[in-house]
Amino acid sequence: MVDPFIRTFEDADREGPLGGLRLAVKDLFDLAGVPTGAGNPRWAETHPVPDEDAAAVALLRAAGARVVGKTITDELAWSLNGSNRHYGTPDNPAAPGRVPGGSSSGSASAVALGLADIGLGTDTGGSIRVPASYCGLYGLRPTHGRVNLEGAVPLAASFDTAGVLTRDAATLRLAMTALLGKAPATAPITRLLAPRDVWGEIPESTRAAVWPAVESLGLDVDDAPLFAAGEEAAPLERARVAYATLQAREAWETHGAWIEEAAPEFGPGVAARFKAASGIGDAEVAAAGLVREHMRALVAQRLPEGTALAIPAAPAPAPRLGEAPDREAIVRLTCIAGLAGAPGAAVPAGRVEHLPVGLQLVAAPGGDEALLALAERA
């Protein structure tokens, strides 16, 4: 067994809407007086111990949550698998012998194991939604910029978000309300877009397991394609490549100088991604930026207020330990929200050979509260 916690704490009981609830904190977020490791021992060695909590931790504590530990994360949060060469792979009790998903692996594992009620994580390219799907949990990636990321180690600033994982939708809504703060009222979601061009790329076993969750919401469902017929071939793959290009450029701009100076030891997947990121050119970035602009416009057009996109949170259940995930297939599903800066919720949907798979619900930017209300119906 691999414990999801790097270190545990005896935090004081607190009053508030989250009073009595235990909080597991991904080791990207600062806790006063505790080293922040970002999934790599060299990071902690080369950075000072913080003297105050990250903004997201402070908000959850102010709402009554009690910190019980800091959790394992993939190195610098750049993975979707949940395996860390330095700290191991936290257990996935919903799928024994399989990965919990990353990079919020420890937070997902702690919640799934019942060691915490709320797992604070980040989602840049799916790092809350994918672990939620693999572990049978609820999770929310908020609208980009809605949750204060001060005191959290960045990866790609134009995609990074902070959210939580929980075992039930009511706790998800309580915790995210503490993080999101007050917002103008939005119309409830009454219509789902389940585009056949996206669903057509999903393996039949996952489609069969997730589709009943779409129908169970009892809303009008439209299966019209997400992308226009005149768009160039493989638009989802084009979106994935654009996302990967922009994320990689930003990741290298964020961490390249530290990597060259500190010479950290990375696992093979993370090391390969940073090496590739160092060589991305301006022309690639400019082309990817045009794709992002198109995706933002598309989401605004296809997801008006009251409509949510309904697609699987991941194309398949959790891979076995030591088995390479189909990262490209995963990111084709998660990059839509990332490129649009949109909120995306993951809710438990069904099982493939007794392994959990989740439904992803995406609204236009600002639709976080409507998504949380919809998740409680799932």
Written account of the structure:
- Residues 13-186, 263-372 form the Amidase domain.
- Its EC number is 3.5.1.4.
- There is one protein chain.
- By secondary structure, this protein is of the alpha/beta class.
- The protein has a single domain, classed as Alpha-Beta Complex (Amidase signature (AS) enzymes).
- It is built from 12 helices and 11 strands.
- It has helices spanning 41-46, 55-62, 105-112, 129-135, 169-180, 196-199, 204-216, 235-262, 268-277, 282-302, 327-340, 368-375; strands at 5-8, 22-26, 66-71, 118-122, 138-141, 162-166, 191-193, 220-222, 307-312, 344-352, 355-362.
- Strands 1-3-2-4-6-5-10-11-9-7-8 form an 11-stranded mixed beta sheet, with helices on both faces.
- Strand 10 and strand 11 form a beta hairpin.
- Helix 8 (235-262) packs across helix 9 (268-277), helix 8 crosses helix 10 (282-302) and helix 8 (235-262) crosses helix 11.
- It is globular.
